[in-house]
């Protein structure tokens, strides 16, 4: 066991793959502390580590235990330094691609779950790095040189298929988290799509090419729908901002229409008043003329 300080150490594979769950859990906790120190590991050490973790996961039988361990192993990525991120994932994918055909059908689903968590936490790591262009490109290159290699027949097709199936789904979970937290997303979607674009064109497996094309087409359609929805929301906001002005204009118009009849009535009444007063004046004039005659 490699040690850094009196309490932080890198567990051996036999501890990670122990029969007793307590021993395995203790080894994983020890590994997490070790990684948090930022210690650099050689490629050989990383491969040994992931070989031990592969069997650590193999030994987890109950669904809740499997889910918790997949979460713990995936979250190890978040404690890695930027220099260790890619080598750590390279070792993960190399071990799982090598060991994949030895996984029995009963255990296959739980390993698919582990792959999903690793994809999720890899995207989360990149998001925490503000989708750094260099880091993102390095990650995409790692995928294309590893599990998504378009022409390497040693890489299991079922792993390729699974990555294609969950790729954008896991990405969207991260983007949704960022939106909920009000973060600005500086994501180069073309760079993110590169592994699938390459697979859709260069994969020697016809099924891989087809699945990659379908995933990209579905993503394009979703982006269009999101764009249309966003445009519609913007238009609704504009309409809502114009409503008060329209209401005010309508109210002024109604007020104007209501006031017009009153003016007409006044105009009609005024001539009548002037007519009656003129009659009175004529009557008084006649009386005065009679008096003069008398």
Descriptive notes:
The structure is a single chain. The chain has 294 residues and is mainly α. The protein has helices at 13-16, 21-36, 43-58, 63-75, 82-99, 105-128, 133-145, 157-180, 189-202, 206-293, and strands spanning 2-4, 8-10. Strands 1-2 form a two-stranded antiparallel ribbon. The radius of gyration is 39 Å and the shape is elongated. The model is unreliable at 1-6 and 262-294 (pLDDT under 50). Keywords: Nucleus, rRNA processing. One of its GO terms (biological process) is rRNA processing. Residues 278-294 have a biased composition (Basic residues). Pfam families: Nop52 (PF05997).
Global geometry: elongated
Largest sheet: 2 strands, antiparallel
Query: Which percent bin holds the helix content?
Result: over 70%
- The number of helical runs is 10
Which regions contain 5 or more consecutive residues with pLDDT less than 50? 1-6, 262-294
Order of helices and strands: EEHHHHHHHHHH
Helix/sheet category: mainly alpha
Order of strands, main sheet, comes to 1-2
**Alpha carbon gyration radius:** 39 Å
Please give the alpha-carbon distance between the first and last residues: 147 Å
Strand elements, count = 2
Mean pLDDT: 85
Strand content: under 5%
Region (Disordered): 215-294
GO biological process, one term: rRNA processing
Keywords: Nucleus, rRNA processing
Biased composition (Basic residues): 278-294
SSE layout and pairing:
Layout: E1 2-4, E2 8-10, H1 13-16, H2 21-36, H3 43-58, H4 63-75, H5 82-99, H6 105-128, H7 133-145, H8 157-180, H9 189-202, H10 206-293
Region (Disordered): 215-294
Pfam families: Nop52
Family: Belongs to the RRP1 family.
